[in-house]
Amino acid sequence: MYNALLIKAFKYKKKMEKPVITQKSPYVLEMQPGSYYYCTCGKSANQPFCDGSHAKL
Length: 57
What we know:
By secondary structure, the protein is mainly α. It is built from 1 helix and no strands. The chain has one helix at 2-11. The chain is flat and about 35 Å long. The mean pLDDT is 76.
């Protein structure tokens, strides 16, 4: 039952047409303590951090 629910969930999930690779080398940054969210969709204007652009895909 659980596997069937997972398959159904992924079936309707919107997929990206073409992956976006923003940089193929490490980002070297000096950071202040705090919470940061890494962008995994590649659409953020604030790379390597998420700015919520994935919600507009």
